[in-house]
Amino acid sequence: MTDRPILGFTIGDPSGAGPEICIKALNKPEITEICRPVLYGDEKVMRRAMKIIPPRMDLRIIREPAEYQDGFMNLISLDNMPDHWDYAKVQASCGKAAFEFIVRAVEDAKAKKIEGVVTGPINKEAMNAAGIHYAGMTEIFADLTGTKDYAMLLTGGPLKVIHVSTHVSMKEAIERVKKDRVLRVIRLAHQAMRELGVEKPRIGVAGLNAHAGENGLFGDEELKEVIPAIEAARKEGLDVTGPVPPDTVFLKAVNGMFDIVVVMYHDQGHIPLKLLDFMGGVNVTVGIPILRTSVDHGTVFGKAGKGTADESSMIKAIELAVQFAKHRR
User: Fold this and answer.
1) Rounded mean pLDDT of the chain?
2) Would you tell me which of 7, 140, 156, 262 could form a disulfide with 277, CB atoms 3.0–4.6 Å apart?
3) Which secondary structure element, helix H or strand E, spans residue 137, and what is its range?
């Protein structure tokens, strides 16, 4: 039991279902059998959530992850929330608090006090209302760790995808399909799969255009940017196939031809993955110096405060974080 990694769980936006999902996950004995979870949040928020989802363990406030004890929900409380807030409502106080939970967890991960961070859902509108401007959680982790070469990896069901671009307009997404960036993401895909125990990852690269450009008939991005990146990766010894037409690459991956697919933009990867496994998806930030996995859904305002939110994605995020942590060791 002593080899269980210490993982930090940020509870997410207090007005969402994140705190409830954390309790639901920790109510499962199999979670504490595989890791030592430390919550990052606010005691008031957790006490309120505990009235909705009765926990199997008492709450214990700690100052440092090293103070973790089995048999409790161990919480590092930032005490940064007001006495009152509403569920299912965008509030600057909640956005600010959720961001501060992440900052503290990242600091502890960088200091090697925890082996990774599992994040609950945040609300970008609430954070922006608090004057904290990020396109998403991936960008937060990249900024807090000073990382330039990073990417979003999603895993769900039989599919894994990694993105050349994420939270940008379609126009900008097309402009970001450049050889250097595509090559870096192929390398990150290889690295991530190796950390998941795949000795020789097979990487499929999706085309940007219909039919992967049809040799320039429907666009020349494949010829000018994607194919040169694939050829460079092959020279480095990576097993890379593509560009594969976007309408078939995911079927091939699901059928076992590829371990992971490099996609060119946000929805190209998100749509097939969420279709296959909407509530079991996990978001991973690769390329950063710390381990980070996350639920692949939002704050679930429609179920916040009701105790009915599904914890499946949180459980999968925890399990994947444990897998990454053990391989990184």
Assistant:
1) 96
2) 156
3) helix 137-144
The residue whose two tokens read 């097939």 is 272
Residue 247: both structure tokens together: 């309408």
- Relative to beta strand 151-156, strand 159-163 is antiparallel
Enter the DSSP assignment of 48. H
Say if residue 289 is exposed, middle or buried (CB neighbours under 10 Å; 0-12, 13-18, 19+). Answer: exposed
Give the angle 130-135-137 at the CA atoms, nearest 5°: 85
Distance between terminal CA atoms of the chain? 16
Longest dimension (CA), the chain: 64
Tokens of 87: 């569920």
Query: Cα separation of 163 and 175, whole Å?
Result: 14
Torsion from C-alpha of 34, 21, 124, 103, nearest 10 degrees: -40
Burial class (CB in 10 A: 0-12, 13-18, 19+), 149: middle
Q: Residue 152, SS3?
A: strand
Residue 180 amino acid letter: D
Q: Which domains does the chain have, with CATH numbers?
A: 1-147+288-329 (3.40.718.10), 150-282 (3.40.718.10)
Bin 71: left if φ > 0, else alpha if -120 < ψ < 50, else beta. Answer: left
DSSP annotation of 225 reads: I
Backbone Cα Rg of the chain: 20
> Is the omega angle on the peptide bond into residue 289 within 30 degrees of 0, that is, cis?
no
**pLDDT score for 2:** 62
Query: Whole-angstrom Cα distance, residue 284 to residue 192?
Result: 9
Residues 133-175 pLDDT 10s: 999 999 999 999 999 999 999 999 999 999 999 999 999 999 9
Alpha-carbon torsion angle 39, 41, 45, 49, nearest 10: -20
Check whether 110 has a pLDDT greater than 90. Answer: yes
Q: Which residues contact 297 (CB under 8 A, 6 or more apart)?
A: 121, 278, 279, 281, 313
Q: Is residue 240 classed as helix, strand or coil in its secondary structure?
A: strand
